[in-house]
Design a protein that fits this description.
244 residues, alpha+beta, seven-stranded mixed beta sheet, five-stranded mixed beta sheet, 4 helices
Amino acid sequence: YSPQAPLLNDTATNSTVDWDFFQDIDLVPIDKIPAPGVNKWVPLEVHTSIFDDYREHLAFNNRTYQTPVVPSLTTALTTGYQAYYPDVYGFKSYPVIVDSMENVEIAIFNKDVNSHPFHMHGNNFFVQVRGSLDKDPAKRKTAGSFPVRRDTITVPPQEYAIIRFVGDNPGIWLFHCHMEFHMEQGLALTFVVAPYRIIANTTLPDQYKRNCDLMGIPNAGNAMGRTGLDMAGDPRGPFPLSGF
């Protein structure tokens, strides 16, 4: 800062700033694109709880994310037709298979006490509806004919948001809370978009393989580094403890 910049006086140093939640659904995009229809519906409940490993986790539908032994892109490229099976990517990576050009609607129900900014890699989505979990109609807002498109949406506590995207970008795409420590606590999943198109159009570069070799990561196989649907050792838990 400039040494000539004015300093706050002592009475103002403990002040707070009031701000209102920004309703992005009210924005009107310059390029008018109507929202797609719906072929696949993905409901996601957001919870914080103490799990049976006696740690606090955040989760989608009580499933906490964990990085697979084999990167999901490697699995998609080395398991043949089984790349279309969600099981090969591992339970804890929470894979959601999306067909090429499939229209997907995601309903995010935030039952946590915190706001969460959810970010989608590789795609923009249409913001369709916002509302409160208590179903108060005064708090429900619906987009117009041409909804705003974003790659991140904040869902306040005890509220929900409905978004849509088109599976037109083949790849393995994370969907996660953009507060990094919330993602570390498990608030993430993966969209596996157009797995057959990934296979047809993607080649792993040699540097990618060398990096995996240096880190002891297999260059082929399912999430556990095994063949086909042999998922021995694939972790399923932890799970929420009763009463929390």
